[in-house]
Design a protein that fits this description.
The chain is an alpha+beta fold. About 20% of the residues lie in helices and about 15% in strands. It is found in: Secreted.
Length: about 170
């Protein structure tokens, strides 16, 4: 078996006279390996590929957050941008950091709804509601948050930084 591995290794090192050298001031592309019999991986791009429909950096986070402390209260509307951080959301940097943290925990979507069939404690957290619309990392967002059961309270608390300091205060 060692002879087979050596033969495969030497075959990969064969020089057909087509090798090109790079000037010493340029970085070499990363080495790529494959398992014998597998397809070679796609080449690594040296320049970032723009997302569909936009330039790099232009499909960021632009959200409008509307919070109601109760069904009859006046709505509080705020804006948030990330990369660069801005808007009139209190502590916008913390709100953007919360989005990233929840995104990592939820597999990339901080606004994901509670999964269908999920068992939730039947506990009422309050009448507060929030609507979030806009884009997050270039993806369309149009979702609502509430506090009607344990799952929705968790979802609310995960992104409470978006809703502002009043959103933490229960109203009775």
């Amino acid at each position: 078996m060692p002879g087979v591995v050596t033969a495969l290794t030497l075959t990969g090192c064969k020089d057909n006279g087509t090798a090109t050298s790079q000037p010493s001031n340029q970085a070499s592309p990363p080495a790529q390996s494959t398992t014998p019999g597998s397809q070679a991986p796609a080449p690594v791009s040296q320049t970032p590929t723009p997302p569909p429909g936009g330039k790099i950096g232009t499909d960021g986070t632009k959200l409008t957050i509307t919070v109601r402390m109760s069904p009859n209260s006046h709505p509080i509307t705020r804006t948030l941008t990330c990369d660069p951080t801005g808007g009139n959301t209190p502590n916008a940097a913390q709100a953007c950091a919360s989005l990233e943290k929840v995104s990592a925990a939820k597999g990339g979507d901080p606004f994901a709804p509670t999964p269908k069939g999920q068992m939730c404690t039947q506990i009422y957290g309050g009448p507060q509601t929030a609507t979030v619309k806009g884009t997050w990392k270039g993806k369309k967002v149009d979702t609502t948050f509430g506090r009607k059961n344990g799952c929705e309270i968790k979802r609310w608390n995960d992104l409470a930084a978006l809703f502002g300091p009043l959103a933490h205060t229960p109203t009775h």
